[in-house]
Every structure is written in C-alpha cells, then in structure tokens.
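Researcher: Structure for this, please.
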Amino acid sequence: MAETARVLLVDDEPMVREVVGQYLQRDGVLVHEVADGAAALDWLRANTPDLVVLDVMLPEVDGLAVLAEIRRTSDVPVILLTARSEEVDRIVGLELGADDYVVKPFSPRELAVRVRTVLRRSRPAAGPASVLEFDSLRIDVPAREVHVDGHLVTLTPKEFDLLVHLARSPRQVFSRTQLLELVWASSPDYQDPATVTVHVRRLRQKFEATPDAPRWLTTVWGVGYRFEP
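Model: Predicted structure, token format:
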C-alpha cells in the first residue's frame, strides 16, 4: 500500500482486537478499535477509514445494523466477522453490501491477507483497458466509476472488482469457484461460493434494466457467469 491505510476494527472481544490489531499494524495499517456498534457509528460520523472490519455479534447495535447504516452514506469496504454456524448472517451481510467475510474462529494471518487484498482493490489503479465501454455501459477503471446511459451507478468495491474482471474477458465463462479465487483471492475451503451469487444478483439489480433478464451479466446454467459485450 502506497500510503498508510486506516482500518476501523469493531469487535467486543478484547483478545480478538488485540491480536488482529497487532497483525494489521505489522502491515503498516493504522488501526482504531471499538468494542460495540454504537461506538463504531459514533466514530464513523467523525472519521473516514479506508476499511472496516466488523463483527456481526455486537452489544448495543449489532454488526448488520452498523453495516446497513454505513451503506446509507458510504461505500467504504467492509469485511464481516461471522460465527461458523450463522450462514444467514453472512448472506444478509452480503445483501447489505459487505465486501467480504471471515468465519470465526479464523487465522489472524488470513484476515490480514483479506484486508490487504480488499484495500489494494478498493484503491484506484490504472491498468490495461482502463476505460471499458459497451453501448450504454461505461466502466472507468482508474476512477472506479460505472455509468449507464450517463448516470452514475454506485457499487461497492467488491461489486466493482467483479464487474471489471468479467468485462475484461467478454463472453468467457467463469465458475463461482474461479471467481472466488480471482476476485476474492479465496476458495470454497474458506468462503461460500454463494458469495459470488449474491454479488452478481446485486450487480444486476443496480445496473441492468431488467435484472431477471440481464443484458450484460448472464448465467451459463450449471457452469457460471459471463459478460456479454
């Protein structure tokens, strides 16, 4: 990371905050820690972090409520910490706009890698085919902006990454496992492939004129997804 990133770490377990905070600080990240949802919202009203690591099970205000409030005004990347048995929380979190999740108990090293990956992808970076145009759809990669018919479409960082990856390989079919590996830097061993399904559905709802009959993001049944130019 070229400049120091700021991460808000929200967890009610002191040991989790201490260990995770140490791992992130080793990567040169500035970490601000809070123990409950209400404190997180208070801090966010006065500060703008580069990423939020957010436990779902919190006192005062739970993590999903915090995430919903964040998404009302911000597209800051959010990584959820969820209990292994709470698949519903993970799916709801993704629907609300979480960019990634890590299941407890987790390796602090794994979480640090996820944080680096999300931070890297959420920051503007020029690359091949920096502006992608398909009829009324325009994807400005360095600016991380998407326009349809001239109107700006607000995407989360992970939604944007997924769209760019598919759009840069038009008509190529990617399985959910491949997309987990290529976009999330993860695998089914660590993350449910339903993560991809949820993100594709959210993308369609945001910029397809008819989400149930998509123009650009199509499903190849039994295989995966592809972008139709």
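Researcher: Any notable elements?
Model: Residues 6-122 form a domain with the Rossmann fold fold (CATH 3.40.50.2300). The longest strand covers residues 78-83.
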